[in-house]
Amino acid sequence: MKTDFLWGGSIAAHQSEGGWDQGGKGISNMDLVTKGTRDTPREIHKELKEGFIYPSHTGIDFYHRYKEDIQLFAEMGFTALRISIDWTRIFPNGDDPEPNEQGLNFYENVVDTLLAHGIEPIITFFHFELPANLIEKYQGWTSRKLVALFEKYAKTLFERLNGKVTYWATFNEINHLDPNSKAAEFFTYYISGLKFEELENPKQAIAQIAYNTALASAKVVKLGHQINPEFKIGCVFGINPQYPETCKPETMLNNLLENEKELYQMDVMCRGKFPQYKLKEFSAQGIVIEQQETDAKDFQQGTIDYIGLNYYMSSVTPNEQKENEAFFGGIQNQYLELSDWGWAIDSVGLRYTMNWLYRRYQLPLMITENGLGAEDVLEPGNIVNDDYRIDYLNLHISEMKKAITEDYVECLGYLSWGPIDLVSASTGEMSKRYGFIYVDLDDEGKGTGNRYKKKSFDWYKRVIETNGTE
Ligand code: BG6
Predict the structure, then answer these.
(1) Do 329 and 363 form a contact (C-beta atoms < 8 A)?
(2) Cα(250) to centroid of ligand 1, in Å?
(3) 260 catalytic, yes or no?
């Protein structure tokens, strides 16, 4: 592995910060999502209601404890940390004339703390944090108005953090916009601010959301490169490959189409052109995309520098149509074990996906998320023996290494998801833990909030120390 390979982790604002009403922050879409459970989905409210828990309000209090947390990351030897910026800390309503200085100051302090520890900050502009005002006023990302507002928000940060931040990502997982997947309901809201079941014409709305976000990404990449040509600006995608159940030709074809359906935005961002087949497909379905003549040029000039890959699981395309079993569609793979949340554990799938994307686009990758959500037990002496997590990460990092050293995939770094326990995006639980650092909070947000090192803490430290040779 190259010596400048980035090792670290990724967190997101709405899952970690808390302090939802502090520092001049506005209300975001995620501040209106309740806590769910493994079996009960989170509710999405139009306004806050008594008697509900909204996990983003408290998170793990990274807003106040970031120095302590970064100190622990530094102790593990992190050379990179990916954070997201909450749009509502910078522009509380999304369309305010001036940015909120307190918000800018907070993130600048976080970045300065990282730099003081020799940790490269990687900034995601949008990890599902959307000002609620933009949903009410403009119908979220269905409106092109958001493209310019997002550009202004990104410009503010590019300028403020220029010279301190090199790596940026425009969006997180905006590719999960498949109306047929089990996860469509909450992803549509997380990405666009709109409830899937309330969309009058879901196909039309989703196509426009996908278009607008891809365009916003291109415009921000172009702008960032103008501000500082040294910036490395990518976009983060969640890719969960599907394998065919058998080699039956119809299954192979379906499998190809299943795998392709969430890639067209990546095509635009990597190749600089909206794929013709997709535009034709839209028009054949009666979908009319609002576009402008200058868009083509923006797409062309706003291609990304690297692909951020979030990888958790794979699934299977069945021979015959069956009800979806896996989180992102398809059925489960009989050769794989499932996590306690039903996510198939497939380390080879990471090598497979890295090869697939690298050979398709020949752009450097960065593993921006990967990890195991599991229930941990805090044992006497504040110890967590999370050997299952070590096993999971060990297998995945080993497969990543093979992709790099045996298949020659260019990869900039490996960032584990939630290096410190945080709120689960899909369920809102604290008990779905990913961290090397245990946070003493329960699903109701109750507890001391104290941080304890798990067994995996020293293990990951050793991986980083040896640059993955051990
Ligand atoms: C990714 C998201 O899809 O999966 C993260 O980018 C999320 O925000 C992660 O937390 C793991 O999912 P979950 O539901 O286990 O938190």
Answers:
(1) no
(2) 32
(3) no
What does the pLDDT profile of the chain (470 residues) look like in tens digits? 899 999 999 999 999 999 999 999 999 999 999 999 988 999 999 999 999 999 999 999 999 999 999 999 999 999 999 999 999 999 999 999 999 999 999 999 999 999 999 999 999 999 999 999 999 999 999 999 999 999 999 999 999 999 999 999 999 999 999 877 777 888 999 999 999 999 999 999 999 999 999 999 999 999 999 999 999 999 999 999 999 999 999 999 999 999 999 999 999 999 999 999 999 999 999 999 999 999 999 999 999 999 999 999 999 999 999 998 998 899 999 999 999 999 999 999 999 999 999 999 999 999 999 999 999 999 999 999 999 999 999 999 999 999 999 999 999 999 999 999 999 999 999 999 999 999 999 999 999 999 999 999 999 999 999 999 99
Q: Could you give the domains of the chain? A: 6-465 (3.20.20.80)
Atom of ligand 1 lying closest to residue 423 CA: 16
The Cα–Cα gap between 31 and 14 comes to 8
Cα separations (Å) of 303 from 193, 218, 220, 277, 296? 25, 6, 10, 19, 12
Q: How far is the CA of 281 from the centre of ligand 1 (A)?
A: 30
According to DSSP, residue 66 is labeled H
DSSP collapsed to 3 states, 256-267: HHHHHCCCHHHH
- The secondary structure of residue 333, as a DSSP letter, is -
At residue 243, the 3 state secondary structure works out as strand
Distance from the CA of 83 to the center of ligand 1, in angstroms? 13
Distance CA 412, CA 192 (A): 29
Q: CA distances (Å), 366 to each of 306, 369, 371, 411, in order?
A: 7, 9, 15, 5
Going by C-alpha positions, the residue among 216, 184, 265 that lies closest to residue 94 is: 216
Let me know if 50 is a catalytic residue: no
- Name all residues whose Cβ lies below 6 A of ligand 1: 12, 15, 172-173, 238, 310, 369, 373, 417, 424-426, 432
CB 150 within 8 A of CB 220: yes
Q: Whose CA is nearest to atom 16 of ligand 1?
A: 424
Tell how strand 344-345 and strand 365-369 pair up. unpaired
What DSSP assignment string belongs to 4-47? T-EEEEE--HHHH---TTSTT---BGGGGB----SSSPPPB-SS
State the number of CA atoms in the 13 A half-sphere of 34 facing the CB. Answer: 16
Claim: this prediction has a pTM higher than 0.90: yes
